[in-house]
Write a structure and sequence with these properties.
By secondary structure, the protein is mainly alpha-helical. It contains 13 helices and 2 strands; from the N terminus they run H-H-H-H-H-E-E-H-H-H-H-H-H-H-H. A hairpin with a 3-residue loop joins strand 1 and strand 2. It is globular.
């Protein structure tokens, strides 16, 4: 528990104090957001030129928080925790490349979709392959070849299908957070709520670990406590960043941050054996992603749009809702999904 608290506190302080000088440097070099002319028109005046790539702060604060928490308590770092941090950092680098092209090459769309997908896939494959290795003394690896909801179920799908499954999770989650990152504080606030759930889940699994006491309702997870530590470190970094990202935002996380956060959430779901539960915990990300799918599909099939604009948050902007109203109400929706997911997780622990 000390490691969880220390890692979260260290990353929070680093992000809170470190974001201000990053904003100054980005402004000095005029590395501001390039707003699409075909988007919400009010953003051209309110968001154009706002420093971006703030996700760098989130990643660095998370890594230092995780490292500092372990150094101060003496708890060993684990394969599961390091793999999630690798996935987060790797996807953050893909996002950084996307932001770099937007800022330095003045191309508002950044990386081509094929190049971004290739980068996400490469990082995801490496994570998936290594996650099936590094067994502990009980022969439990960071991930398993089973699909999971509250725990593993069904038969093994084999390593090849497992890698494909991980790729779907990683690209889906990272792109979901990326699509949500369209209003000040929306993605960072929603991510904090899901990460808080994983702090609770990891700690609960640790206290009911099959390796310490076999029971019908224990958890067969390699490093549940370190999963909670990673979640706390990322959550602390998001808290510190949100101070500067809250409306009106002084800095945006960019694709650097949104892809990294999506990677962290996907990684945590995989190592805690709660892969399908993430669909509930991250319900807001799912809804926003589906709004884009529906919009694109409807337009291609009927040449008609279902929403004024996708992703969904921009539909409500064009409907006249204030940005802060949308952000707070979407946070509430995210909180309700997290509460539902945690409720199901807790109920599922009780034996039949």
């Amino acid at each position: 528990m000390k490691t969880i608290l220390l890692s979260g506190a260290i990353s929070l302080v680093i992000a809170l104090l470190g974001t201000r000088p990053v904003i100054t440097v980005l402004r000095k070099h005029k590395l501001g957001q390039q707003v699409r002319t075909d988007g919400v028109q009010s953003h051209l005046a309110t968001k154009s030129g706002t420093p971006t790539m703030g996700g760098i702060v989130i990643i660095i604060a998370t890594l230092l928080g995780y490292l500092g928490g372990h150094l101060f308590t003496g708890d060993p770092m684990t394969a599961s925790g390091l793999l999630v941090l690798f996935l987060m950092t790797g996807l953050g680098l893909v996002g950084f490349a996307d932001d770099y092209i937007k800022l330095f090459m003045r191309r508002s769309l950044g990386l081509r979709s094929s190049a971004k997908l290739f980068g996400q896939a490469a990082v995801g494959v490496i994570f998936a392959v290594f996650a099936l290795h590094f067994p502990d003394g009980y022969d439990i690896t960071p991930a398993s070849e089973h699909i999971s909801f509250l725990a593993d179920f069904g038969i093994s799908i084999g390593p090849v299908l497992f890698v494909i499954w991980v790729l779907l999770m990683v690209t889906g989650t990272s792109n979901g957070v990326n699509l949500t990152d369209g209003l000040d504080g929306l993605a960072s606030g929603a991510s904090i709520l899901v990460l808080a759930a994983y702090v609770i889940i990891g700690n609960w699994q640790y206290r009911n670990d099959c390796t310490t006491g076999l029971a019908s309702n224990c958890y067969d997870v390699r490093d549940p406590l370190d999963a909670a530590v990673v979640a706390a470190a990322v959550m602390g970094a998001c808290f510190g960043f949100l101070w500067w990202n809250a409306p009106p935002a002084k800095i945006f996380m960019g694709d650097t941050g949104s892809l990294a956060l999506g990677g962290a959430l996907a990684g945590l779901a995989i190592i805690t054996r709660t892969e399908l539960l993430l669909i509930l915990l991250g319900g807001l990300f799912v809804i926003i992603t589906m709004s884009v799918v529906i919009q694109v599909g409807s337009y291609k099939l009927t040449h008609k749009r279902v929403f004024r604009m996708a992703p969904l948050q921009h539909h409500f902007e064009l409907a006249g809702w204030a940005e802060t109203t949308i952000v707070v109400r979407f946070w509430l929706i995210a909180g309700m999904f997290v509460a539902l997911g945690l409720g199901i997780f807790y109920v599922g622990w009780f034996p039949n």
